[in-house]
Design goal:
The complex is a heterodimer. Chain A is mostly beta strands. Chain A is built from 1 helix and 11 strands. The longest helix of chain A has 18 residues. The chains are: A mainly beta, B alpha+beta.
């Protein structure tokens, strides 16, 4: 058992020092809303969310970057739902020479929604208060936005970004409302916490 | 072990963000009326009792049914007024009855015409400013009558996707009429004025503003003066004066179509201040209103005839009853002959009021649950046929 634990520790250290060393972390806070995409940029009340993830390099040239990314997140929509999700996206950035990135992504995620209110389930002819086991949803998404590389000359530069993510919640209410449109407005940072000191 | 700890942490965090329903004492829902009693001697009592129980056995949280005819009146309630507090629904409890208010709005407009304050065949631009009507296609040219019978073609704000998502985004927002009208501005009209009929809530927001313009009073005060008080509708009020009055039964929505309900009592803010919804009442008052209206005790004979000048839509909905549009009322063709009807939804509530002229019978029913699977149970054609058959057979 000790050997296994030691091996696992060594593996994590190796990963941190070598593979993860090249991996950026993306961290964003966002405002979720039920909305028709591009109807409005920002809406109130604020329904807060937080997302953390990473990106992988696939193809990159002087002006273009194509990259898969994965993320997990949580959002809280008062009076309607709270959700935990995992999302896989394919991103495409156009990099300008002055540090600005034009960003776009398409993605597909798994979302588990939970009620923010007490639930009553009809069982055996009567309603009973019950604990929420959640509902499974798919969340296809399309995202556009802007990023700014803090160190314009480096590929592995930290970047601050603002992203407008449109996504669908499917299924929503079968036979009643087939799907629901949402938008998330993200303010985030991409950074390299595991980067090796090359000096 | 770590997996279990993680699961527990997640469940704790999710649980911490969940609101529990308020729990009330039974006295909170106490109500009294000498007129509303479950008189077991009423000839239809057994049929109505079975009907009500059938609703709750299929998942309706609470239901009240009232019948008035030459043999008297009877109201049956069954189920719960509040699931968290486990309190039985009473026949005199108050509930939201949504768009049934449109019949009250139409009756008020007809009364104001009788008073000489307006004329149904004048364009609404005579009464409402350009600022109000700007950008709402067909509105400037439409007459009051065309708003009343939905032949104006004006876009229905409530069917606008932007409005629907915006109302879900802020479920407890209290919307003003001007904000709701914004969702009909810049939208295409459904058809040229007078060439067809199509239900539009926007028509009735505008009618509420006309009532205010010609009387100088909030439209719901005019309802009180002209209808609620004279007709002794003691359980009826409009939401604007007290949006969630003490004792109103809790409303529930089956949002995900799985008979898993959440409390939506505070979610109907889009119809608190406009004349297309927002009525609070009970089935006893609704049946009384319908009986008096169609037995000629409310409007002059000429006004009632105008109200019942029926227009057929160019195409009937194949799934529903054959339907004709009057002024704030519909005529449907049933197995028991014609019936005059209006129904209404609020979020978590449904009500319907029907009058059968041949049988001189008024029937109303209301539930404190809707959407999802509940809609099929409480308001489908099959459900309505079952109610009519049980009472009129």
């Amino acid at each position: 058992m000790r050997t296994i634990r030691f091996s696992l520790l060594c593996f994590i250290l190796f990963l941190t020092q070598n593979v993860l060393a090249q991996q950026p972390v993306t961290l964003s806070i966002f405002n979720e809303s039920t909305a028709i995409p591009y109807d409005r940029l920002f809406s109130t009340p604020i329904h807060p969310g937080v997302q953390i993830g990473t990106e992988f390099n696939w193809k990159e040239s002087r002006h273009f970057r194509l990259y898969p990314s994965i993320s997990v997140g949580y959002m809280f929509h008062r009076k309607l739902f709270q959700g935990l999700y995992a999302n896989l996206e394919l991103g495409f950035d156009y990099k300008t020479s002055f540090g600005l990135n034009l960003k776009s992504k398409i993605g597909l995620g798994y979302l588990r929604t939970f009620s923010t209110q007490q639930e009553f389930q009809f069982e055996d002819g009567e309603y009973k208060s019950r604990s929420d086991k959640g509902n499974s949803r798919l969340m296809p998404s399309f995202t556009t936005g802007l990023g700014y590389r803090l160190n314009q000359k480096e590929n592995n530069s930290s970047e601050i970004y603002i992203l407008y993510q449109s996504w669908l919640e499917y299924p929503y209410s079968p036979g009643f409302i087939p799907l629901m449109a949402h938008t998330n407005l993200h303010l985030g940072l991409r950074f390299y916490p595991f980067e090796k000191n090359e000096q | 072990m770590m997996k279990k700890i993680l699961q527990l942490i997640i469940l704790f965090l999710l649980g911490a963000c969940m609101e529990k329903d308020e729990v009330f004492e039974a006295s909170f829902y106490e109500c009294e009326s000498n007129d509303i009693s479950n008189n077991p001697q009423y000839p239809l009592a057994n049929s109505i009792d079975s009907l009500a129980k059938n609703f709750t056995s299929r998942g309706v949280p609470g239901i009240m049914i009232s019948v008035r005819n030459v043999e008297g009146q009877y109201t049956k309630s069954t189920g719960k007024s509040d699931l968290a507090s486990d309190i039985d629904l009473k026949p005199c409890n108050i509930t939201r009855v949504g768009s049934t208010v449109k019949t009250f709005t139409a009756v008020t407009i007809l009364m104001l015409q009788e008073d000489g304050l307006l004329n149904l065949d004048e364009p609404i631009s005579k009464y409402l400013s350009k600022r109000v009507l700007n950008g709402i296609e067909n509105a400037k040219e439409a007459t009051i009558r065309q708003l009343l019978n939905h032949s104006s073609g004006v876009h229905n704000y409530i069917q606008d996707n932007s409005f629907q998502t915006a109302s879900l985004n802020d479920l407890i927002k209290e919307w003003q009429p001007e904000e709701l009208l914004e969702y009909s501005r810049g939208r295409d009209a459904y058809f040229d004025i007078g060439t067809d009929v199509r239900y539009s809530n926007t028509n009735y927001i505008l009618l509420g503003l006309i009532i205010e313009e010609v009387t100088g009073l909030p439209f719901y005060h005019v309802f009180e003066e002209k209808i609620f008080h004279p007709m002794n509708l003691s359980f009826t009020s409009f939401a604007a004066t007290d949006p969630v009055p003490d004792g109103i039964i809790r409303g529930y929505v089956d949002l995900y179509s799985n008979l898993n309900l959440i409390n939506s009592t505070y979610y109907s803010g889009w119809d608190y201040f406009s004349a297309d919804g927002g009525l609070i009442s009970n089935t006893s008052d609704l049946s009384l209103f319908m009986e008096k209206l169609f037995q000629g005790e409310v409007l002059s004979e000429a006004s009632l005839m105008e109200m019942m000048n029926w227009i057929a839509p160019n195409e009937q909905d194949g799934n529903g009853f054959e339907t004709y549009y009057g002024l704030g009322i519909f005529r449907i063709m049933t197995d028991f002959g014609p019936a005059y009807l209006h129904s209404g939804d609020a979020i978590g509530y449904f009500a319907s009021m029907v009058y059968f002229p041949n049988q001189k019978t008024a029937i109303s029913w209301a539930s404190n649950g809707n959407y999802g699977k509940l809609d099929e149970i409480i308001q489908s054609k099959k459900t309505m046929e079952g109610i009519f058959k049980a009472i009129l057979k």
